[in-house]
Amino acid sequence: MTTKVMIVDDEILAINHIKKMIDWQQYGFAVVSEATNPRIALAYFEQMQPDVILVDIRMPVMNGLEFSKKVLSSGYPVKIVLLTSYKEFEYAKEAINIGVFDYLLKHEVHADTLLAVLSKIKLELEREKIRESMIRRQLLTDILSGRLTAGQQSAPALESVRSAGEQFVFFLLKPDTPFPIMSPHEKQAGQIQIESPSSTEFAIVEILPFVGECLGILVACPKVHSQKQLNDLLFAFCRDLQKKYSFENGDTASIIFSFPFSDLFELFAIAKQAERFVHKTVFFGRNQFMQLHNFTMAPDSAYASLKDQISSIGKQLDSDDTSLLVHNVEEVFQMVSKYVDADLLHTLCRKLIEILNQFRAMHHMTDLEEQLNHGLIDCSQWFTVNGIRDWFVGIFKDSLHEARCRKIPEYSRKVRQTVEYIQNNYAEDLTAEGLAEQLAIRGDRLRHLFKEETGQTILEYITKVRMEQSKKLLADGRYKIYEVADMVGYSSSQYFSQVFRKMSGMTPLEFLEGKVNYTHENEN
Question: Is 0.85 topped by the overall pTM?
Answer without folding.
Answer: no
